[in-house]
Known about the structure:
The protein is mostly helical.
Amino acid sequence: xxxxxxxxxxxxxxxxxxxxxxxxxxxxxxxxxxxxxxxxxxxxxxxxxxxxxxxxxxxxxxxxxxxxxxxxxxxxxxxxxxxxxxxxxxxxxxxxxxxxxxxxxxxxxxxxxxxxxxxxxxxxxxxxxxxxxxxxxxxxxxxxxxxxxxxxxxxxxxxxxxxxxxxxxxxxxxxxxxxxxxxxxx
Length: 186
């Protein structure tokens, strides 16, 4: 009798699973905000837990320093923080989950991208802007509306690494030509 080894997930499988979980969770959150679906809080929590567990697994595979809980003084009060060492820096977060997210971004932030379509890059850039700059809801809506107005599905699916400057110029001319009002000449 031969015992089979459990299937080992490759790094790209785990990255893809994390990305898929993140996408599913955000999609459910969007649908909930829009009032399209109700009662998905348990599903969202489960997706978040599973995503965190996979991130934690990847981080602990490569992170060599201890993760500790400490207290720091903030506004004359002691506050609990999670901290570790990352190269020359010492990141601190208020929760263990936030620290794992920060470490995951530190180690794997650039390598997670597997889809280089224009649409995916736009969404990634917008997510980054939302996380770092916290724009107003109207601004986010305006970005989405502009994308829908000017970017076709065909162009959105193109790999940005393969788009030539001449193709981009031609696309912009075609879109601006379609949107420009026609002038009547007498």
